[in-house]
Design goal:
- With 455 residues, the protein is an alpha+beta fold.
- It has two domains: 13-64 and 118-249, 60s Ribosomal Protein L30, Chain: A; 257-451, NADH Oxidase (3-Layer(aba) Sandwich), CATH 3.40.109.
- The chain is 33% helix and 20% strand.
- The chain has 14 helices and 17 strands.
- The protein has helices at 29-37, 55-61, 71-78, 122-137, 191-203, 226-229, 234-237, 257-266, 280-290, 310-330, 335-342, 346-349, 370-397, 412-419; strands at residues 13-16, 50-54, 65-67, 79-86, 89-94, 99-101, 114-116, 142-151, 154-165, 171-172, 188-189, 211-215, 302-307, 353-360, 401-405, 425-427, 430-434.
- The strands form five sheets. A five-stranded mixed beta sheet has the order 1-12-2-8-9. Strands 13, 14, 15, 16 and 17 form a five-stranded antiparallel beta sheet that branches.
- Strand 8 and strand 9 (154-165) form a beta hairpin.
- Helix 9 crosses helix 13 (370-397).
- The longest helix has 28 residues, at 370-397.
- It starts with 12 loop residues before the first strand and ends in a 21-residue tail after the last strand.
- The relative contact order is 0.10.
- GTP binds at residues 20-23, 55, 60, 109.
- A divalent metal cation 2 binds at residue 148.
- Residues 1-255 are annotated as: Coenzyme F420:L-glutamate ligase.
- Residues 267-435 form the Nitroreductase domain.
- Residues 20-216 form the Coenzyme F420:L-glutamate ligase-like domain.
């Protein structure tokens, strides 16, 4: 290894520790790492070094291994909330406050048929390693437990700190001045993550080198010099937990009005779909959003009939087509005109998934006059429309295209008969669902002012 530059030139050195064997449950990581660090040809460990340890070997030593078939249940157990979902991928917040894919449950770098959970308490794991190395080697080092993250708005992965001991993981520069004398109002450097990423450059993902050492940054290690030990430093006391943004400071935790507006504009009528199958779970999540719509008298006037088999879709659409043709002939339309009109229903026939929203007047009030009874039904119809809009917007959030078509409303008896629905269920159109075959055409924006009257 080359030496560091002379005094006064900021620099550090980082190297991986070869010779780490396959770690198994119950292994003593302190002994394993101490032996690897002291191997011939390596400089050993010294006060002020920072040890960067991949979380997988910590998890293995702590017995945090499960069968691969338990993966989804493990994610559920580790997660406290789902932040985002794309198909089968879930970005979740873990019990540790980390926001990451699949709660860090990983099937890489572990035996076939098994998965690894993150360490139960990575900060505690880091403290145990630091204390063990102090006792074994008499050195005062910092320890960072690392894991691999994706990041919002950035492509690619990098290692970050999920556990730490004896390391100032945050360098709060607020209140200071930059080189030009400008005040620093928001600058807090994530030193723990920077160290983790530096170690990953030499550890790699597939080289079997789970531990690295950084030398030359003793100022970030508590106990290694006078500066790091002066005063109370929450970045040292809390470990990597200090890197987790508090919910009150998280601008994107629950979304913003801008995000809501974007979600609404994602809903576009799609008339051409691919043959890709539709995830039934995504449709059910959209139904869950639909039934949050407002409704009269604290009722739940919505039902959603999911036509998941091709046979059920064809049976319904054939019956609806026949009823439509009969109506058109009764209206005096010629056969060519009828065929042209019936082709408008192809959007439903070509979709891989259909949903029939229904209105149910459960809990409605009855009045002695037609005027109020009509108004009562209109209230319920408005509630049904709100639910359908929620449903379409939620489908767009699942990256599914949709088209609401009113045709079932014109042959309600046929729909009820074919689908064996109760007499009180009134179909409120049909929703074609699928992957859009092409991006929707651009549409001109609408000015809200055109639709507003102020009194």
């Amino acid at each position: 290894m080359t030496g560091l530059p002379g005094d006064g030139v900021p620099a550090y050195r980082v190297w991986a520790l070869p010779g780490i064997p396959e770690v198994r449950a119950g292994d003593d990581l302190t002994k394993i790492i101490a032996a690897a660090a002291g191997a011939e040809g390596l400089p050993g460990l010294a006060d002020g070094d920072v040890l960067l340890v991949t979380s997988k070997i910590v998890s293995k030593a702590e017995g945090r291994m499960l069968r691969a078939t338990d993966r989804e249940a493990a994610i559920d157990a580790e997660a406290v909330r789902v932040v985002a979902r794309r198909g089968a991928l879930r970005i979740v917040e873990t019990r540790l406050g980390l926001v990451m894919a699949a709660a860090g449950v990983d099937a890489s770098n572990t035996e076939a048929g098994t998965i690894l959970l993150l360490p139960e308490d990575p900060d505690a794991s880091a403290r145990a390693l630091r204390d063990g190395l102090r006792d074994a080697l008499g050195v005062e080092v910092g320890v960072v437990i690392t894991d691999t993250f994706g990041r919002p708005w950035r492509t690619g992965l990098t290692d970050v700190a999920i556990g730490a001991a004896g390391v100032r993981v945050l360098d709060d520069l607020r209140g200071g001045l930059d080189a030009h004398g400008n005040p620093l109002n928001v600058t807090t450097v994530a030193t723990g993550d920077e160290l983790a990423a530096a170690g990953d450059l030499v550890k790699g993902k597939t080289a079997g080198l789970p531990v690295a050492v950084v030398r030359g940054l003793a100022h970030v290690v508590a106990g290694a010099d006078s500066d790091a030990d002066s005063g109370v430093d929450s970045g040292v006391e809390e470990g990597a937990r200090a890197l987790v943004r508090a919910p009150a400071d998280d601008m994107f935790r629950l979304g913003t009005s801008e995000a809501v507006r974007e979600a609404v504009t994602l809903r576009r009528t799609i008339r051409e779909f691919t043959d890709d199958p539709v995830d039934p779970g995504a449709v059910r999540r959209a139904v869950a959003a639909a039934v949050t719509a407002p409704a009269p008298h604290h009722t739940t006037p919505w039902r959603f009939v999911l036509l998941e088999s091709e046979a059920s879709r064809v049976r319904l659409l054939d019956a609806m087509r026949d009823a439509w043709i009969s109506d058109l002939r009764g209206d005096g339309f010629g056969e060519e005109s009828i065929a042209k009109r019936v082709r408008r229903g192809d959007v439903l026939r070509k979709a891989p998934y259909l949903v029939v929203p229904c209105l149910v007047m459960d809990g409605s009030h009855t009045y002695p006059d037609a005027r109020r009874n009509a108004a009562e039904r209109e209230m319920f119809v408005v509630a049904a429309g709100a639910a359908v809009q929620n449903f379409l917007v939620a489908l767009a959030g699942e990256r599914l295209g949709s088209a609401w078509v009113s045709s079932t409303m014109f042959c309600a008896d046929v729909v009820r008969s074919v689908l064996s629905l109760p007499a009180g269920w009134d179909p409120m159109g049909a929703v074609a669902v699928g992957r859009a075959a092409a991006p929707p055409r651009e549409r001109p924006g609408r000015s809200a002012a055109e639709f507003i009257e102020v009194r």
